[in-house]
């Protein structure tokens, strides 16, 4: 696998920036001008997690033509798995001081831990679940959807329904995931104080590490023979099928991989923001993740990372300076990018490569001409 | 038992006993037990002032003097003799109020209930008979008998007979024949209350218990059917809401193939138009306020329709043939529209009033039909019918169908296709606006109103089959009814989740809905 300049630059920038920020936070006194405050560390970590979600969306949307409007569901599921581990880490330090039950269960009058909470006191098991839960859900959902050739808009709409159904489910108190308050008040991760600056800095560096790892993995996948067939499926699915490939298998593999990547992003997100609740499943969140990719440049991978960081930085800035204008800006971004910037920010800087999708889906518009 | 005999005796030789044991004197005492006895006695005495005195007692306006004279306090604080009605002055310092406790209060309610059986107003008598039925005290039987003898109104008479049957059945001391005869009367009434009375004696040994048990079973069967019908009604009601929300989308998405994520915001704009129309009419023509919704319907159609045309001309027409990009751009548009409304009207819910002719409910057999739901059901079908007629019979509808079926051929025939696109999108948006008028009656009018319907609307259109208005109608009703039948089993939220999961599975099996279009258009 050969890396082009943009890819190397991305990795160096992401990882380098994370390292420098963490180092400055740890090694300089708070009074120093060089000091990076901890809230900036947490914010940067959050952006990197969102970048993982964007990367996952770009992998399926940019290279397999599957517009998922429910990817935040996988992100949130990974987050919940991590949240459950963090809840068990609280132990008897909760408000009610119950060593076996999280606070919200004591509050609801539960007597014992539900069966699906067992095992989450072990970090290894919880991390396995971070991968398995989104992965298995994606496998089941994708197998059903791709096998029966649900494509395009229909797939987008049922992914919306999926995340909406999960939103409703996680709002229920008797699901045993904390209802609409979700999980919060975490104390420790792997024995380290979760509020401590050093833990925060370490989490930022770990997030950067995972993001770069996922980026390299995604690059490897789309550059491989597998990725070439994926692009063929994206551009003309029926022709690929006629050539003897099984598009549904290719789509399923990349779909599950993407869901797992999103889940890992969610798992790293929770300890850095300190809360996970059902609003992460809100259908709007998934659609927002798509706009990150669109802004950065669909089908470029680098663009997904760039877009997620840019848009979220913009969101942070807007919501603190001009809160009432944020939705205007976000809405305008959706409209302007789709109308005038179909190749995203990255598209401004480089010539079109073979790997990128056409801004107009040729098959669809051709069909529109004939019959529509 | 003894008390009953005493009452019977009391009734048989009414005036004599009344003198011997004066209920008025009993009332004028400080002892709860005596007062209670007095209430019962007075109710049975046939005293013409009984109703007045007992109501005064209930309202805490009955007083007595040490010489056992009863006084009624008027609202202005002055006292009058309870029997003669003559004003009493000066001695109010000695007047003491007749105090009551809960046990007296319940006896008092029953007593007043049986006294109202003789009220000249039939509707009061009807209510009184209902109250006596609910209490079903054997003590009320004599009063019921007297009232029945005088009753002329057949509805009231039936209700009184039911009340009497309930009282007789609940009285273990009554003759077996009489109690057995009471069972069919209650069975004929056949509602929850009658079932309750029957069930309370169903455990008793002997033929009465057996008959009651059989009657309970038969009522249960009937009630079950009614509750089934009620569920269907709720389902149709929910389905009609879904139908209204999806009707416009059936045009923009179903016929045109435009993924309009801002569809919900068109509904929201319709609801806000209703709010504005009501405000304006309240300020300028308050006399016509009751008809504000009728004014709001065309206004909402125009507002949402015009905005729809503008959206099509400025945004959507650049994105035809790019469904996923359309989806993102219109999502952005929906955020902007929400924020515009939030800036103009504030983030709080706006109060849209329900006109008088739409509030309340009516009873149809065992069904409770609320007027606003019933009107919305009718309205939804009316809108669908109008939409189908417009597509089928108007020149514009003809052109719309021509353009969607074969754009180039339509253009070759001289149809201005871009203009038709704009009008079609405007029609779909306008219908969404109309839906907003109806939804403003049952939902909170807030900037987020539309978001709650967008996923459901898409589900309905996809479920019914894209491009098929009949499919949309049937899809909406099916989803509504399935949802309402799942609710009692699984709970409201879980029911909705189950419906969503079922829908996801359904779309997997039938990606093109219940009634897929056939032919070449399918590949578009």
UniProtKB/TrEMBL annotation, chain A:
Its main location: membrane. CDD domains: TM_PBP1_LivM_like. Pfam families: BPD_transp_2. Keywords: Cell membrane, Membrane, Transmembrane, Transmembrane helix. GO terms for cellular component: plasma membrane. InterPro entries: ABC_transp_permease, ABC_transptr_urea_perm_UrtC, LivM-like. The chain crosses the membrane at residues 38-57, 64-87, 122-146, 153-171, 202-222, 252-270, 290-313, 325-349. The keyword Ubl conjugation does not apply. It comes from the Bacteria. GO terms for molecular function: branched-chain amino acid transmembrane transporter activity. It is a multi-pass membrane protein. This is Urea ABC transporter permease subunit UrtC. The keyword Transmembrane applies. It is found in: Cell membrane. It comes from Rhodopila globiformis (Rhodopseudomonas globiformis).
From TrEMBL, chain B:
Residues 1-20 form the signal peptide. One of its GO terms (cellular component) is plasma membrane. InterPro entries: ABC_transp_permease (IPR001851), ABC_UrtB_bac (IPR017779), BCAA_transport_permease (IPR052157). GO terms for molecular function: transmembrane transporter activity. Keywords: Amino-acid transport, Cell membrane, Membrane, Signal, Transmembrane, Transmembrane helix, Transport. GO terms for biological process: amino acid transport. It is a multi-pass membrane protein. CDD domains: TM_PBP1_LivH_like. This is Urea ABC transporter permease subunit UrtB. It comes from Rhodopila globiformis (Rhodopseudomonas globiformis).
């Amino acid at each position: 696998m050969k890396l082009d300049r943009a890819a190397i630059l991305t990795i160096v920038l992401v990882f380098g920036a994370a390292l420098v920020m963490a180092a400055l936070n740890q090694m300089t006194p708070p009074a120093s001008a060089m000091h990076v405050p901890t809230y900036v560390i947490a914010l940067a970590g959050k952006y990197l997690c969102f970048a993982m979600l964007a990367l996952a969306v770009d992998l399926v949307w940019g290279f397999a033509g599957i517009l998922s409007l429910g990817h935040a569901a996988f992100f949130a599921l990974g987050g919940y798995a991590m949240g459950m581990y963090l809840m068990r880490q609280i132990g008897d330090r909760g408000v009610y001081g119950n060593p076996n039950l999280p606070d919200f269960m004591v509050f609801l009058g539960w007597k014992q831990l539900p069966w699906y909470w067992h095992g989450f006191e072990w970090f290894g098991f919880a991390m396995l679940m971070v991968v398995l839960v989104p992965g298995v859900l994606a496998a089941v959902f994708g197998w059903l959807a791709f096998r029966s050739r649900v494509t395009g808009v229909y797939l987008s709409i049922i992914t919306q329904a999926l995340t909406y159904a999960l939103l409703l489910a996680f709002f229920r108190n008797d699901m045993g995931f904390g209802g609409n308050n979700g999980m919060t008040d975490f104390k420790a991760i792997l024995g380290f104080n979760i509020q401590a600056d050093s833990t925060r800095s370490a989490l930022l560096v770990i997030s950067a590490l995972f993001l770069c790892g996922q980026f390299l993995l995604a690059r490897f996948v789309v550059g491989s023979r597998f990725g070439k067939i994926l692009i063929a499926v994206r551009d003309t699915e029926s022709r690929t099928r006629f050539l003897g490939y099984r598009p549904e298998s290719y789509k399923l593999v990349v779909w599950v991989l993407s869901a797992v990547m999103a889940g890992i992003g969610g798992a790293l997100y929770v300890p850095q923001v300190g809360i996970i609740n059902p609003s992460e499943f809100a259908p709007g969140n998934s659609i927002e993740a798509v706009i990150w990719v669109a802004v950065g440049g669909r089908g470029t991978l680098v663009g997904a990372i760039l877009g997620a960081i840019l848009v979220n930085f913009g969101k942070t800035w807007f919501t603190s300076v001009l809160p009432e204008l944020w939705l205007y800006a976000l809405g305008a971004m959706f409209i302007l990018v789709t109308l005038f910037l179909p190749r995203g920010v990255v598209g401004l800087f480089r010539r079109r490569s073979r790997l990128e999708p056409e801004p107009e889906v040729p098959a669809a518009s051709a069909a529109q001409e004939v019959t529509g | 038992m003894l008390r009953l005999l005493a009452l019977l005796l009391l009734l048989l030789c009414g005036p004599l006993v009344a003198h011997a044991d004066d209920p008025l004197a009993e009332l004028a005492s400080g002892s709860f037990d005596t007062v209670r006895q007095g209430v019962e006695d007075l109710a049975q005495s046939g005293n013409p002032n009984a109703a007045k005195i007992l109501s005064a007692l209930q309202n805490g306006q009955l007083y007595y003097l040490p010489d056992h004279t009863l006084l009624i306090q008027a609202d202005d604080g002055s006292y009058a003799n309870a029997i003669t009605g003559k004003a009493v002055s000066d001695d109010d310092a000695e007047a003491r109020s007749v105090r009551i406790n809960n046990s007296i209060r319940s006896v008092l309610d029953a007593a007043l209930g049986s006294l109202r059986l003789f009220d000249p107003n039939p509707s009061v008598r009807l209510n009184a008979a209902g109250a006596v039925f609910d209490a079903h005290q054997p003590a009320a039987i004599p009063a019921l008998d007297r009232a029945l003898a005088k009753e002329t109104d057949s509805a009231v008479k039936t209700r009184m007979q039911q009340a009497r049957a309930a009282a007789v059945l609940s009285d273990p001391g009554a003759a077996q024949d009489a109690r057995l005869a009471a069972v069919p009367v209650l069975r004929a009434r056949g509602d929850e209350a009658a079932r309750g009375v029957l069930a309370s004696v169903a455990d008793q040994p002997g033929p009465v218990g057996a008959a009651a048990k059989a009657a309970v079973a038969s009522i249960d069967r009937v009630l079950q059917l009614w509750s089934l019908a009620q569920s269907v009604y709720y389902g149709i009601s929910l389905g009609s809401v879904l139908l209204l929300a999806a009707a416009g989308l059936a045009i923009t998405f179903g016929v045109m193939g435009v993924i309009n994520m801002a569809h919900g915001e068109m509904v929201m704009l319709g609801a806000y138009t209703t709010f504005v129309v009501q405000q304006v009419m309240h300020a300028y023509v308050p006399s016509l306020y009751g008809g504000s919704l009728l004014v709001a319907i065309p206004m909402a159609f125009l507002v949402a329709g015009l905005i729809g045309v503008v959206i099509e001309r400025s945004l959507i027409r650049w994105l035809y043939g790019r469904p996923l990009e359309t989806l993102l751009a219109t999502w952005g548009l929906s955020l902007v529209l929400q924020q515009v409304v939030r800036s103009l009207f504030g983030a709080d819910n706006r109060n849209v009033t329900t006109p008088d002719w739409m509030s309340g409910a009516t009873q149809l057999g065992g069904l409770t039909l609320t007027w606003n739901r019933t009107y919305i059901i009718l309205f939804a079908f009316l809108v669908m019918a109008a939409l189908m007629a417009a597509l089928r019979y108007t020149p514009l509808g003809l052109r719309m169908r021509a353009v969607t079926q074969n754009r180039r051929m339509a253009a070759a025939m001289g149809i201005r296709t871009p203009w038709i696109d704009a009008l079609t999108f405007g029609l779909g948006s306008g219908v969404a606006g109309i839906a907003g008028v109806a939804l403003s009656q049952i939902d909170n009018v807030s900037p987020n109103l539309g978001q709650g319907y967008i996923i459901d609307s898409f589900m309905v259109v996809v479920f019914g089959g894209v491009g098929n208005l009949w499919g949309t109608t049937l899809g909406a009703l099916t989803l509504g009814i399935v949802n309402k039948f799942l609710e009692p089993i699984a709970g409201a939220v879980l029911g909705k989740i189950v419906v969503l999961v079922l829908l996801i599975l359904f779309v997997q099996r039938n990606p093109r809905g219940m009634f897929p279009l056939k032919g070449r258009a399918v590949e578009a």
